[in-house]
Histidine kinase
Amino acid sequence: MWRFLAGVGSALALVAAGLFLFRSDAAVEKLPPPPKVTASTAGIDTPLADDPPAATQRTREQKRFDRYDKDRDGRITRDEYLASRRKAYAKLDTNGDGRLSFDEWAAKTTTKFATADKGRDGTLDAAEFATTAVKRKPARRADCPPAPPPADEG
């Protein structure tokens, strides 16, 4: 039991010594304030404005809300909300009957299939199927300057 109490006491003594020796009262070097920019130091002849105009900070959600709120009354009606969907639906409804058949709904896919089916046999072989792959944009390469020639030593 005495060993346990001696261990606890020595641990507390070490913690107290660590706090005493390594306390963070070190002086922080204070830098002088940066010089004020004036027209003469900026290299221009006109005086600078004290407060530049600030742009409005609109969030992505506020911009999205404004796209839907067509009459700008601060509210989105059901018709305003569905307007973009109606336009997309109208594009798909090619015969204008107000109903989408499967072929109308899958128009892009069926057109892609018909274009790829060169043999007009209703099937795609491996070469025809390869033409249906999504065309990806090539990665933009950064034009780096050429490396300097190695320096001659000697």
